[in-house]
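G., before I forget:
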Amino acid sequence: GAGVSQSPRYKVAKRGQDVALRCDPISGHVSLFWYQQALGQGPEFLTYFQNEAQLDKSGLPSDRFFAERPEGSVSTLKIQRTQQEDSAVYLCASSLDGSYEQYFGPGTRLTVT
Amino acid sequence: GQNIDQPTEMTATEGAIVQINCTYQTSGFNGLFWYQQHAGEAPTFLSYNVLDGLEEKGRFSSFLSRSKGYSYLLLKELQMKDSASYLCAVRRVTGGGNKLTFGTGTQLKVEL
C-alpha cells in the first residue's frame, strides 16, 4: 500500500510568484494535516481537514496561504505572492481519523529566491 | 499557549542506552507522540502515550507522567541507524478536532 505522497518534492519560486503544493493521503484516511517545518525546527501546524471540511486553519501564517481538499482526498496548499520567509519544508500527514497516529509524506522543500 | 521542551542534541555510543526527555505545558492534553526523523525525510511514528506509564515497543520505550507534564523516549542497544532527530509532539483537543504541537526535536548522534 502506498504511503502519503507529495509533489513536487522541490520547488524554487521567485519572490512574488504563486505556488501550489499537492498531497495525496493514504487511501481511506479521513484526516489530513499540513505542517511547515523550518530548518532545525519541529513541524508547525498549519491546517486540518476532516474529509472535505477544513476544521482548523489557525496555523496558516497569513491570508496568502490557502488550502483545499474538495473531494475529501487530495489536498492542495496554495501560497500566493511568495516571500522569502515562506522558504521551508511543507509536510502533509494523514490519519485514519483524528484520534490515530499521523503518517507523514516526504514533504515539499520550497525555496523562495 | 503551549510549551514543549526537549534537549537540542545528544550523543551516545553504539550498543548503549539513551533517554531523551520532553517536558510540556498545554491545555486539552490528549496524548503524546514520539516521531523519528532522518535528515531530509518524513517523520515516522515511534510511540504514543495517553495514560501514565511505560509503553514498550522493541528497542524503544516511552514513558508519560501527565501530572508532571513529562515524557521520555528510551532507546536501547543503540545502532548507527538510530542517528536522527527525535520529535516529541503533544496532541490537543481543540474545537476543530485533534492537532499535534511538536517540540524542536533532539538530534541524536550515535558514535562507535
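Chain B touches chain A at residues 4, 33, 35, 41-45, 48, 87, 89, 94-105 (CB under 8 Å). The radius of gyration of chain B is 14 Å.

More on Monday.
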